[in-house]
Design brief:
Elements lengths: L6 E3 L4 H9 L10 H24 L5 H14 L16 E3 L6
Antiparallel strand pairs: 1-2
Helix pairs in contact: 2-3
C-alpha cells in the first residue's frame, strides 16, 4: 500500500517578507498566508486597542488619536493586500514523502 503525503510550499514575495519581518514574523515555506494575516491582524488590533486606552487615560487628545490611527494603519498596509498577492506564482504542491 502506498502512502502519498502532500505538502504545500508557499513562496512569498520579497516585499511581503520584508513587511512580515518588520512585525517580527519569519514564515517557513509551509506557513500559510492566512495564518500570517491572522497574526498581523491580531497585532494590529492589539495596537489599536492600546492607542484607544492611552487616549482614554488622557495621554493625548482624541484629535491626536485620529493621526495616530492613520500612522498605525500605514504600518499595517499588508492587511490591505489580498492574500493572492502575498506569494509568487510558483506556489505548488509536491509529493515529498511518497512511500511504497
Amino acid at each position: 500500500m502506498s502512502k502519498v503525503t502532500h505538502s504545500v510550499q508557499y513562496h512569498y514575495t520579497q516585499s511581503v517578507l520584508d513587511e512580515l519581518a518588520s512585525h517580527g514574523l519569519r514564515p517557513r515555506p509551509s506557513t500559510s498566508p492566512q495564518t500570517l494575516r491572522d497574526a498581523i491582524n491580531d497585532l494590529y488590533r492589539y495596537e489599536i486597542r492600546r492607542l484607544r486606552d492611552r487616549c482614554r487615560a488622557g495621554e493625548f487628545s482624541t484629535r491626536e488619536l485620529t493621526a495616530r490611527v492613520v500612522a498605525l494603519r500605514k504600518r499595517y498596509m499588508l492587511l490591505s493586500l489580498p492574500l493572492a498577492h502575498w506569494t509568487s506564482p510558483s506556489v505548488g504542491m509536491g509529493n515529498e514523502g511518497m512511500r511504497e
